[in-house]
Design a protein that fits this description.
With 354 residues, the chain is of the alpha+beta class. The chain is built from ten helices and nine strands. It has helices at 4-66, 88-105, 108-116, 129-133, 169-178, 185-198, 211-216, 242-246, 278-284, 287-300, and strands spanning 72-75, 79-82, 144-146, 149-157, 162-163, 263-264, 310-318, 324-332, 343-348. It has a five-stranded antiparallel β-sheet with strand order 3-4-7-8-9. The chain has a two-stranded antiparallel sheet with strand order 1-2. Helix 5 crosses helix 6 (185-198) and helix 5 packs across helix 9.
Length: 354
């Protein structure tokens, strides 16, 4: 039989062991908590730094947009490019070529195409390709090193789309036909309802919809009777579906034939043939004219001397293996006021890339 003092020594040993286990657990939790705090602090620091890297990318894009330009275009290899202004010698040659084109070297369809593009005369396509390469700067916009991070930014062109707020009924009918809505009641309903959504009166068109229709359907909104500010507003319009807006797959393959790829809410007119995608060009022109424009852009990087006014910039600041922060901005470069700077129409500090 053990003595009482020996039993007390065993209990003391167990208490000491449990205290050690508790201290180890507390130390482990403290170390883990400190590691989490360090990671959180580092992520916050890098997020702030990447945000300002992204702002630096926006500033770089603004400096490009502000430059005097003979044309703006989306180059098949280099992305957005800005044509260098003509020197006096080249300017005189361009005017001579313009005079020749105006006299009789263009057919009627070509003149109609130029009319839609603000009457800008197409540059002579027989110029030496090496000379064409000097007409615009090639600027690197991907993974620009800056401090401990990198800057990547892109410039796209809202003038390459059709302005929904100023589009005529005829243009909207062509847009609907292109996205797959054939001639019939469905197409008329959507087009008239869009126009009723935008106009300021409460009188609905033959196939349109005003406040009475939306109330009857039990919807928590009525026709806006004002400008469309975001394209997703179109999803509220009578007859509109997600398949029409975003584009539906065809034959198991994705397609860009959705309204979001063709329309813009900004008053970016006229449409710039140098930056419009094939979808927009197909809405405005016949197949021959579309192919002519695309061939010129493929061959020399631009079609004619059309400049744009509205630009969308996506800029991302990032750290290798770390955080990323993306800004999305829409800027306007007014043509009517010299040296007016840039107007900011849209600024998203936390753009989520699709």
């Amino acid at each position: 039989m053990q003595r009482p003092e020996n039993n007390q020594q065993g209990i003391a040993m167990m208490v000491v062991l449990w205290v050690l286990v508790l201290l180890i657990a507390l130390a482990t939790e403290f170390a883990f908590s400190m590691k989490m705090e360090v990671n959180t602090t580092r992520n916050f620091k890098e997020d702030v730094e990447s945000y300002y890297l992204a702002k630096a990318g926006v500033a770089l894009a603004m400096s490009e947009i502000m430059k005097p330009a003979r044309f703006h275009s989306i180059h098949p290899e280099h992305g957005w490019v800005s044509g260098k202004p003509l020197t006096p010698e080249k300017d005189s040659v361009s005017k001579n070529n313009a005079g020749k084109n105006k006299v009789g070297n263009k057919d009627d369809s070509k003149r109609e195409a130029d009319k839609n593009f603000a009457g800008i005369v197409t540059v002579d396509e027989t110029e030496d390709s090496k000379e064409n390469e000097k007409e615009y700067e090639i600027i690197e916009r991907e993974k620009i090193p800056f401090g401990n991070g990198e800057i990547t930014y892109t410039i796209t062109d809202e003038n390459g789309k059709i302005g929904i707020n100023n589009a005529s009924r005829g243009v909207l009918l062509k847009v609907m036909k292109y996205v797959g809505i054939e001639l019939g009641e469905e197409r008329d309903i959507i087009v008239d309802s869009i126009l009723d959504w935008i106009d300021k009166d409460s009188n609905h068109r033959i196939n349109g919809a005003e406040e009475e229709y939306y109330k009857k359907e039990g919807l928590p909104y009525s026709a806006k009777n004002g400008r469309i500010e975001t394209l997703t507003e179109l999803l509220k319009v009578r007859g509109m579906t997600k398949e029409i807006f975003y584009g539906a797959p065809e034959n198991g393959e994705d397609t860009n034939r959705g309204l979001e790829n063709i329309l813009t809410v900004y008053d970016a007119s006229p449409v710039n043939p140098n930056t419009a995608n094939a979808e927009v060009l197909s809405v405005l022109f016949d197949a021959t004219q579309v192919q002519e424009i695309l061939n010129a852009r493929q061959a020399k990087g631009y079609y004619n001397n059309t400049t744009s006014t509205h630009f969308r910039v996506h800029s991302t600041g990032s750290f290798v293996g770390g955080t990323r922060h993306t800004l999305s901005v829409v800027l306007e470069k007014p043509k009517t006021v010299q040296n007016a700077g840039l107007l900011t129409h849209y600024w998203n500090d936390n753009f989520i890339e699709p």
